[in-house]
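Recall that a protein's primary structure is simply its ordered list of amino acids. Everything else, from secondary elements to tertiary packing, is in principle encoded there. The following example makes that idea concrete.
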Amino acid sequence: MAEISRAVLVTGCSSGIGRATALALVRAGLPVWASARRPDTLAELVDAGCRTLELDVTDERSRQDAVRRIERSHGAVGALVNNAGYAQAGPVEQVPLSGYREQFDTNVFGLVRLCQLVLPGMRAQHAGTIVNVSSAAGLMGVPGTGAYAMSKWAVEAFSDALRYETRGFGVRVAVLEPGGVLTTNFTDTETATWPAEPGPYQAFRDNHHRRMRRWNHEGARGMSTPDEVARRVVAAVTARRPRARYKVGVAPRLMPLAYRVLPARLWDGFWARQFPV
């Protein structure tokens, strides 16, 4: 019987959670393939012992090449960590349809397709783990990030379906649900994607940017670090029976609860105080 692959493919490793995850996994003794659209950003990970790949999760040839390369070396992808993603920000009215499509191409369709590509190898060895990085935004609606929240809600639903469908093949599926994460470029990217002409949403945009910068740069109670998220990924990848969901930080524990139990009037009032229009 062929040896079961322990090789881990991690997407979106150029910074933040992806970089921390690749480092944590290789330090745990796993063969790690760290990927990014620009492999020149991965020099630190090479020095740490990771193998690296150029991988654009929105490009089919790139996706296939990455998976086939790992399969040639290990027989199969032993674990897939779908981390690559970004936040398309802006009011629902102003984000063009192209912005929604690009958001889903990266956060949803790229993730789905990579799962499809690694599953035959995982089924053949009757073992494998898929970890999909979602967000607290996938558990509730957040003003100013409707497109992003939509994509993460989709990841939640997809992961539930996938977990049930593949359990009989020895494949385990887990979802990571981080809240706010410090010291990443996520907030800067979100700010940069906001529509250039805010028009009637000028005050909303300014207040949104101000609050997000404060949360990210000054820090806020309950926010996590990339290393904290990475530790949960390692736990999911190495567990014999990983949890269906790993919540990281305060937000994914408390905010969805408040979302479910508070009357809509009070919930809307909370966000109105955070991001005045």
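DSSP finds ten helices and seven strands in the chain. The two ends are 62 Å apart (CA to CA).
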